[in-house]
Amino acid sequence: MRIDILTLFPEMFTGFLDGSLLGAARASGLLDIRIVNIRDFAEGVHRQVDDRPFGGGPGMLLMPGPVVDCVESVQTSAPAGHLVMLTPGGRRLDQSVVEELSRQGRIVLLCGRYEGFDERVSETLQPDEISIGDYVLSGGEVAAMVIIDAVARLVPGVLGDEESARQDSFSGGERLVEGPQYTRPREFRGLHVPDVLLSGDHARIAKWRHQQAVEKTQRRNQVNHSQRSIP
Ligand code: 6GU
Asked: For 7, which of 44, 78, 111, 155 could close a Cys bridge (C-beta 3.0–4.6 Å)?
C-alpha cells in the first residue's frame, strides 16, 4: 500500500515512521510511505502558505494555491490516491472507516494547520474529510499518524502471524472491546487469576471471555453515554 503525507511539518513524522512496526513494513516494501512538504508549493521569497481570514476572526488559514498545487502534483503519479483531508469537521474515524481506507491501494493524507483550510480547497478537490474525534488538535498530523497506524495493521503481512490471527469479536453487529487478560504471576498483591483460565477447558474459557467482553462493552457504553467526567 502507498501512503502520501502532505504536511507543513514533515519532521513530526520521522520517529513515528521509523519505529519498529512501520519501519519494518516500509523496509520490506509492504508500505510505501512518502512525505511531501506543502511549503515546497508556495510562491514568493517568503514561501507563504497561510493568511488571515477575510471578514476577520482569529488565526490563520491555509491558502488554496499551495495546497491544491501540492495535491495535484502528488496525484499526477499514477494511480491517483484516495484523498483524505484531516479536519475536525470531517466524518468520524472508526474501525469501519479504517477498513475502508485499508482497501484502497493508495491514500493521500492532507494535514491542515492553523485554523483550517480556505473552503475552496474542499470545493476544488472534493476530499474525503475525516476527523478522529470531537476534540481540537493543533493540526492534522497527529490524526494522520492515528490513521496510518490503524490502517497499516490491516495491510496483510504488516503484523506477525500471532497478532494477525486474532479475530475481532462482535455481538449483535457491535464490536466488543477486549475482556480482561492475565499473565504470570498467578497471584499479584492478593489478586488471583480467575480459575477458569487455568482450567484447560478451552470451550469454557472461550465462553467466559465472550461473556466478559460483552459486560465490559456494556459498562463502557454506559460510561460514554452518560458522559461521566473524571471524579
Ligand atoms: Cl483531523 N484535525 C484537527 N486539527 N483536530 C482534530 C482532528 C483533525 N480530529 C479531531 N480533532
From this structure: 111
In terms of Cα–Cα distance, which of 97, 104, 89, 114 is closest to 38? Answer: 114
Q: Does the beta carbon of 5 sit less than 6 angstroms from any atom of ligand 1?
A: no
User: How far does the centroid of ligand 1 lie from the alpha carbon of residue 229, in Å?
Assistant: 21
Handedness of CA 71, 62, 97, 91 (dihedral sign): negative
15 domain-assigned:
yes
pLDDT, tens digit, 9 for 90 and up, residues 6-42 = 999 999 999 999 998 999 999 999 999 999 999 999 9
Q: Which of 128, 137, 138, 147 to mutate to test the pocket of ligand 1 (most atoms within 8 A of CB)?
A: 137
Do residues 125 and 189 both lie within one domain?
A: no
Provide the number of structural domains found in the chain: 2
